[in-house]
Amino acid sequence: MQPFDLQEYNEILAKRTQQLQNIRHQPAQFTVLVREIPLCSEHKTSGCSVDHFFSKHYPYAYHSYQMLYDATDLEQLLELPVAFVTFKSRWGAALAAQSQQHPHPLLWITEMAPEPRDVLWKNLATSYRYLPLQNLLVFIAASLLTIFFAIPVTAVQGIAKFEKLRKWFPPAMALQLMCFNFQWYIFFEPSTQDVLSVFRGKCLHNYHNLKPQSYQELRSVVTGYLPSAVLKGFIYIVPFAMLGMAKLAGCVSGSKQEIKCCSMVFYFLVGNVFFLSLLSGSLLDEIGESFSNPKNFPSHLASAVSAQADFFMTYILTDGLSGFSLEVLQPGLLIWDFIKSHTYSRGKEKVPYLYSMPYFRVIPFVSLSILIGMVYAVVAPLLLPFLIGYFFFGYAVYVNQVYTLNFVLSNENVAQDFFYSIIVVNAYY
Fold it and tell me: Which residues form the CSC1/OSCA1-like 7TM region domain (predicted)?
């Protein structure tokens, strides 16, 4: 009997293979992108070197090539050490793309060519030798964003601990007093305001022991729904910031750029939303205990997991109710279209559009929900029904969008199939 992970992988592999068989043959499936092409020793050109190299090593599969040029100056086109090499079969193209062509690791670098409309042409002009430095800078920037984002996450988790919030944030106590006084004001009749003014001093003195029902309602709202709502507001801008960082990594296609952004956002969510949410509930009182007694850190983490079950339950509910409803309505994009049509696009003919769901924003949050479900399946089984409802709701929303997109778009991007493997990889690791 096969393991569950291998069985699930085989099912997804069969679906992807069926998808590739259903679509028509595309030129990108027979083409390989070659970078860092050396100059020919005889003719001092990269094109001659490409023809000689692939004619020698792939005599039966090689078909043709096309060099890339820098068209900044049309009078003097500059030949780039980048070429698209076409093969006679998909097997030959896959073999050339997955093989190391030269003992030097920075020469004759091959990979499967992206679709023509998916190519980022500006990044092809960047030398492959600079890509590790760019990736390092992107990693540092993403790490700094993850670290500094801990400030609002810790503040939000402090709201969940209302007793600690009253200690560290005095306006919270004032809010409690306002709610307390309001209930006593509506309890007495207007003619008895003098009695209220005398009685209020004693009530304010003993408000810790005498907690009216309105205070309990306020506390349930503040500690329950408010942290998740504020956290969702902060996290909404993170995928777009990560996408801006991924654009600096020099990816050759838009799909690879979004896949990189998906991984960055997922690790960001795991670090900030999951682990930091577990620890930040006790950070206000025990900020130095983990450093002074590191051997007690696993026990603190285990106790924190069970203590934050209510927060993650509310987080999934907030994500399901607000996130999916916003995905259907898309108010931000509609507002942007309204502003654009009434400002600089006024008077221009409107082009019919249909906004698709951004994979770099959707897939990391779904992967995070799967992670939360796997962690709390044993600790808090009550969370599983909410998680199942979350996935059913998301299925109804996204299937409707996918069907609409397939109806409107006649040629779907094949690169979208690779996004489904990200969820499996994140769930496995």
Answer: 213-404
Q: Are strands 62-70 and 109-112 parallel, antiparallel or unpaired?
A: unpaired
Q: What is the C-alpha to C-alpha distance for residues 274 and 267, in angstroms, rounded to an integer?
A: 10
Task: Give how many domains the chain has, as a whole number.
Answer: 2
pLDDT in tens, 9-48: 788 788 878 877 776 677 888 999 999 888 887 777 888 8
Does 51 lie in the same domain as 85? yes
Instruction: Say which residues have a Cβ less than 8 Å from residue 329's Cβ, sequence separation at least 6.
Output: none
264 phi/psi in degrees, rounded to 5: -65, -45
Other residues' Cβ atoms within 10 Å of the Cβ of residue 164: 18
As a whole number of angstroms, the distance between CA 418 and CA 66 comes to 27
84/138 same-domain check:
no
Residue-wise pLDDT tens digits, 255-279: 889 889 988 998 888 887 777 766 6
Low-confidence ranges of the chain (pLDDT < 70): 1-5, 23-24, 75, 153-231, 277-298, 300-307, 318-323, 325-327, 332, 345-357, 399-429
> Does the residue 119 lie in any domain?
no
Residues 259 and 175 grouped into a single domain = yes
User: Can you give the residue range of the structural domain that contains 78?
Assistant: 18-113
Q: Which DSSP string do the residues of 322-367 spell out, in sequence order?
A: IIHHHHHH-HHHHHHHHHHHTTTTTTSPPPP--PPPPHHHHHHHHH
**Are residues 91 and 231 part of one domain?**
no
Residue 68 phi/psi, 5-degree rounding, is: -105, 145
CA distance 219 to 310: 14
